[in-house]
Prior knowledge:
single chain, alpha+beta, 43% helix, 25% strand
Amino acid sequence: DKPEKVNQLLAEIQDSIATINTMQPEHEDLPRLIAKTQENWVSVAAVTSQISDLELIQQDVLCVVALIDVIPELVFNAIKHGKATAIEISIKLKDQRIVELTVKDNGVHELIDLGSGLGTKIMNESAISWKRERVSGYTVTSAEFAYSLEASLPS
């Protein structure tokens, strides 16, 4: 039993490292990140996505970098802690200043405590606000990120 758990943990670590190693924020885009996340977890969970206003969202580099930091961590946690097999990622421009990310999973979180792990730290540092709740048998994590059409990084 222990060797199996160790092997499973090593596989999860390798998948996470692969995700980190392929991330190059200056060249990364959201569809590519999500495709890579789907590929990394294909044998464990179905990860689907819907992105509205993609062209507008991708104009704000800082917002995209924040999303790139958060999405793989939320998917990893849904699978690791919640044993989720289906994860839906939704990204939309809520208004002229806010991008909203929602990650909904079918994990079995008995406690959806916000905890004090890496995911919580990343969310606290990246998002304006965020919450996790149980809704109709699903765990839903929603977060708001600052968005600006103005240049977000100096040229």
